[in-house]
Amino acid sequence: MKKLMMALLAVGLILFLTRAGACADEAGRSWRIVAPDGTRVTEICEEPSEGDVYISAENRLYEIVAVTEDAAIAESRGDVTLPDVSWLDADEALAVSAYTRRIALYCTHSDESYEPSDGYYTTNDRGSIYEVAQSLADHLAERGVETRVAETIHHPHDAGAYRRSRQTAVQLLREMRPDCLLDIHRDGIPDPDSYAVTLGGKPASRVRILVGRGNQNAEVNKEFALLVKAVADRVHPGLIKDIYMGRGVFNQDLLPRSILLECGTYTLEKERVLRSMDMMADVLNRALYGGVVGSAGRTVSDVNEAQDEAGGVTMGAPDTAPAEPAGEGGVGSGLIFVGAVLVVGLIGYALLSAGSLRG
């Protein structure tokens, strides 16, 4: 009897792990999220669970109340109020922070690639998702943010990938002490149009934010995700696709400002995704640091010029202001004072030498 129970438990565990990693193992495996009347809400790759929360591009809040084999029923819970980001309209850039700004990036699913551009959606080597992560890091570095992309591979793409990538995340936290931790992915849903978008007159890709509600930082991570979306909606409308809060942890218990970014899907051209990374870097820099640019990076005016070329929204002025010119009485009055002292000194010397004013 004991052996039978152990066997049943083992089978159950295998089925659970297989189901938990279904989308991870098979591109194109996805779940439809629909309203009670059958109206389509969205589509996700991660297996949904009752209690999951979905925030649409229009900031409509949904809660999943039932899950079938290939769909989830989501009831509307009204609208979400995004954080106030009116400070983005400031006429002048904020002062540059004295501390070093750091963002760490890693890729849990290190095989992920983009089929139209790479010829495959998965690989036994390092997937092109690392190109996307590095592009985002490079654009952040241009804005004066210190970045690091972990090159560690976490194969295979299964339910244990997050356990393996957790070691990478912990190492990044210990060695770098970043302000933000980003896990960079590409989605596994088959429809490229769900991510395809035109931004600044050019083909680009939307970005989905995933937050794990199964950790102690879930609410803080959610607030950070909402802030990122609020900033993006203001400066690069259409860039953020939506926000999904699933039952997983996604290693986001390690740092309050930790999110997972789904950068396009496997059926979308990689070039579109790479084109969005400059805008994504702009959003993250503004959300985390107010959009300031350190001396190591470009000035805010340089960033604005680049965004103008891309059709984006700009803000602020260069963070280095020219020194105020000296006033009219500044240098001139100083020379007069020195001359007067010299004259008085010569007169005194003459008096002492002659012995009297007459002499």
The N- to C-terminal Cα distance equals 130 Å
Q: How would a crystallographer describe the biggest sheet?
A: 11 strands, mixed
What is the rounded Rg? 29 Å
Strand percentage: 15-25%
Low-confidence stretches: 1-22, 295-344, 346-354
Structural class per helix/strand content? Answer: alpha/beta
**SSE order, as H and E?**
HHEEEEEEHHEHEEEEHEEHHH
Which outline best applies? globular
Kindly report the average pLDDT value. Answer: 80
Task: Strand order, main sheet: write it out.
Answer: 2-1-5-4-3-12-11-13-8-6-7
Total strand segments: 13
Tally the helices: what do you get? 9
Helix content: 25-40%
What descriptors fit this protein?
single chain, 359 residues, alpha/beta, two-stranded antiparallel sheet, 36% helix
Tell me about this structure:
The protein is an alpha/beta fold and 359 residues long. The protein is 36% helix and 21% strand. It is built from nine helices and 13 strands. The strands form two sheets. An eleven-stranded mixed beta sheet has the order 2-1-5-4-3-12-11-13-8-6-7, with helices on both faces. The protein has a two-stranded antiparallel sheet with strand order 9-10. Helix 4 packs across helix 7 and helix 6 crosses helix 7 (270-289).
Tell me briefly what this model is.
Helix content is 36%, strand content 21%.
Topology of this protein?
Elements lengths: L1 H19 L1 H4 L5 E4 L5 E5 L8 E3 L4 E8 L3 E9 L22 E5 L8 H4 L10 H14 L3 E4 L11 H16 L3 E8 L8 E4 L2 E4 L1 E6 L5 H18 L4 E7 L11 E8 L4 H20 L10 H11 L19 H25 L5
Parallel strand pairs: 1-5, 6-7, 6-8, 8-13, 11-12
Antiparallel strand pairs: 1-2, 3-4, 3-12, 4-5, 9-10, 11-13
